[in-house]
Amino acid sequence: GAGVSQSPSNKVTEKGKDVELRCDPISGHTALYWYRQSLGQGLEFLIYFQGNSAPDKSGLPSDRFSAERTGGSVSTLTIQRTQQEDSAVYLCASRRPAGQQETQYFGPGTRLLVL
Amino acid sequence: SQQGEEDPQALSIQEGENATMNCSYKTSINNLQWYRQNSGRGLVHLILIRSNEREKHSGRLRVTLDTSKKSSSLLITASRAADTASYFCATDLSTSYGKLTFGQGTILTVHP
Question: How far apart are CA A26 and CA B17, in angstroms?
Answer without folding.
Answer: 36
